[in-house]
Design goal:
15% of the residues lie in helices and 32% in strands. The protein has one helix and nine strands. Bound molecules: copper (II) ion.
């Protein structure tokens, strides 16, 4: 009886460890910020245009490198992340661009019209930090 209980406890401990591993969260330091260096909300641009990614209070590391207080940039175009999405790897598609090599700027081509842009830092596994390090959403008009 005693033995089977401790076996059960062991199994439960492993299950918990596996679960917390799957939901691993990377903390961000207080005051960490990402921001657009060269773009303002409401700005008109000509495509293609350069976007410079600002980061303060943290450092850049390439995707796959698990180092405290670091991450890599993501650019969200005409989209945002829901509360649930903030706990998962950021999708990888045309509206969710990853800069996993540690880039701090990018030249983007967008069709004419209004577009929203947002920067989100992701950890080594592309998951936003806790709390998330995100810029405000800005709107640009492409001529
Ligand atoms: Cu990423």
């Amino acid at each position: 009886m005693h033995k089977s209980l401790s076996t059960l406890a062991l199994v439960a401990a492993f299950a918990l460890a596996a679960l917390s591993g799957a939901l691993a969260e990377t903390p961000s330091p207080p005051g960490a910020k990402v921001y657009f260096i060269n773009l303002k909300d409401g700005q008109t641009v000509t495509s293609p245009f350069l976007i410079q990614f600002g980061l303060s209070g943290m450092g850049i590391a390439p995707a796959g490198v698990d180092k405290p207080n670091t991450g890599h940039h993501h650019l969200l175009i005409d989209t945002t992340l829901s509360g649930d999405q903030l706990k998962q790897p950021i999708p990888m598609d045309d509206t969710h661009r990853h800069f996993g090599a540690g880039q701090t700027e990018a030249t983007i081509t967008l069709p004419p019209g209004k577009h929203t842009l947002q920067l989100v830092l992701g950890d080594w596994s592309h998951i936003p930090h806790v709390p998330p390090v995100m810029s405000p959403v800005i709107t640009v008009t492409v001529k």
